[in-house]
Amino acid sequence: MTEHPLRLPSRRLILALGLTALACSGGPAGSQDRPDPAPAIVSRPQVIQGPWYWRNAKGEIQGGLVDRLDSEGIIWRETEDAKPARIRWTEVEELRRNADSSIDASQDSSLGPMVLLPDRDKVRGEAVATLTQGLAIQSASIGVVNLPLAQWAGFLSLPPESPVAFLRTIDQLRRGSDTPGDLVLLANGDRMQGTVIELDADNLKVQPTGAAKPITLPRKGIQGVAIDASTLSYPPVDGIGWKVSLTDGSRISAKSLSFDPSDPESGLNVTTRWGSEWRVPMNKLAGMRVIHPGMVELDTIKPAAIQTVDYVGPTESPRFGANVSGGPLKLGTRTFDQGIGTQSRTLIAYRLDGTKKTFTAWVGLENAAGPKGQARAVVLLDGKPVYDSGPLKAGEMPRRVQVELGNSKLLILASEFGEGGGVRDWVNWCDPVLRP
Predict the structure, then answer these.
(1) pTM here?
(2) Same domain, 109 and 29
């Protein structure tokens, strides 16, 4: 068994995880308390009519057309001839363009450089220069925009070609330096720690840690830069917010938005979390995920505990925002931007404070696991199994998990061995959310 002792804050929690492992392993607790497996496929491929679709909190989908939208909701028609109806954002989990969801542009290096913002937001484009008013970004989708330096988390200027290497480099930049200061990744594989002073079209000026004078680095020799997270800020959103996704892989958090097709320069007007007004052309809009007040995305917070159980070789630790091998989170024909990639047996525990009523997620076996992969996903409340996916296989559509939390104090997400033991048993928990 591989344990992470710094993440196990109490004997009570260790005991709960131990009981969980027993329940998942098919011992007495598991044989008595394990629920019947959930239906084989909760999310089935379906023919969606119309250029857009929206999904509610139960995972149900409706296709149709968007007449207009604003911060209150969507003016929606199921067909061209249907009467428009208002769908309020309180009913909506996501609004998406009806397109191939197996392709994730955020991992496509051919689309060019990426500018990083806090909270996993990003803008596909070139970090042109630091100016008095912030960082100038040249984006093929939204034009030239200005980003305040307090929201500039870094950039990737030389993206690796493979999606796995791309995601791993982004993750490395997100984690930043192990010591205070900024991190510069050089194209030759070297790293430099220090403080970024200035960026222009040709050079990056850096004050290296411990050096007497700053140095100037040519941009063509720089793969990426991570800005010290302690120097950043990202204002929270009061009320409903949106994570707006573009077809080029950009994602922008918004606190208000509007779209009026009668406007001759029709586009989605976005007010960012820091108050800037940006316009997204509608043909560049991939969709948006609704962030409801009090909602907690579990892949963005630190768990109370993580415990892994080895099979033959060591079990890989979970990855947040990628599958367990570091690649994209793919389940069936869907690719997810957010989630937790695990290998069986892994148990991830979150404390509950009574303010959240429901846990939802999409779960399945990572496509890259291949035909030999098999596993189960189990949800436990206070050590008792309340959801069991049954056997999961690669290529299946994701299954919707919805669990009422009641007065439980501990939520545990368990990835359990399948019939093949520890052979490519890669379980993805995608869009895992606690809802009030």
Answers:
(1) 0.84
(2) no
